[in-house]
Amino acid sequence: MKRRPQRWMLLILTSSCIFSSSYCFSSVFLYEHPEELAEKSDAIYIGQVRSMYSSINEDHGISTYVKFKVLQTVKGPEQSEQIAIVHGGETTFQGKHFRQKIHGAAEFHQGETVMVMIKYVKQRPIIQYFGAKLLLRENAQSGGKEWVRQIPSNVEFAQEHGDSEHAGFHIEKSAYMKEEVFDYQQTLHNIQAQEKRP
User: Fold this and answer.
1) Regarding predicted confidence, which is higher, 24 or 147?
2) Which pLDDT score, from 0 to 100, does residue 105 have?
3) Strand order of the sheet with strand 26-30?
4) pLDDT tens track for 145-172
5) Alpha-carbon dihedral of residues 186, 191, 192, 195, nearest 10 degrees?
6) Which domain holds residue 163?
C-alpha cells in the first residue's frame, strides 16, 4: 500500500527539558491511517455501543469490556453482538475507586455508533492499536455521514518531514488536533477492497 506523504505522530512528553534547551525526551505513538490499521486487524465491526464494564485485570491494571450490537461485519466472523476489550477505565475494588487513563486508548460512550478494529491476543478481542476506533457521526453542514477519530487534546503533535532537523519530525507547538475526519463511503470502500484482494 502506498504510504501517505504526511502522517500525524503523537508525542507524549515523558521528561522535563534539559536546562534551558528546548530539547526534550519523548515517546512517540503513531496514529496510522484506518486502512493500515484495518490490514493489521483480525476483525472489524460497525456497531452501536450497548454497555461497558470495567474491572481490575491480572496485570493489576484496568480493562474495560465494551459490548456492541453489530450493525455490519466488515472483517472477521459474522456476529450479532461483540465484546471488545480496551485498556484503561474506572472501577471500584474492595471499596476503593480506581481510574486508569491511557493516552491514545479508545474511549466509548453508550449509544454511539462506531467502527472498531480488533486484534485477538491469546484469543481475547482487544482494541489494541492507537486510533482503532472511528466514531460515526453526521456532518453538521452537509448532513452526510463521516468517520471521526478522536484524539486526546492534552498532548503535543508533530508532523513528519523528510528534511526536519529533529529526527524527522517538526514539532507543531501551536496546534493541538482533537480529531481527524475521514470520508464515510471512501474509507469503508477502501477497507472492504483490502479484504477482497488475494
Assistant:
1) 147
2) 82
3) 26-30, 8-13, 156-160, 169-172
4) 999 998 765 544 444 444 434 333 333 3
5) 150
6) 8-196
pLDDT at 32: 83
- With respect to residue 2, please indicate whether it lies within any of the assigned structural domains: no
- The total number of residues shown for the chain amounts to 198
35 vs 74: CA distance, rounded Å: 12
The number of folded domains in the chain is 1
Please give the full DSSP string across 65-117, using - where no structure is assigned. EEEEEEEEEEESS--SEEEEEEE-EEEEETTEEEEE--TT-----TT-EEEEE
For residue 121, tell me if it sits in a domain: yes
Instruction: Name the amino acid, one letter, at 104.
Output: G
- In order of 10, 31, 59, 171, 177, the CA distances from 153 in angstroms are 11, 14, 28, 15, 6
Task: Find how far residue 167's CA is from the centre of its chain.
Answer: 24
Give the pLDDT score at 12.
34
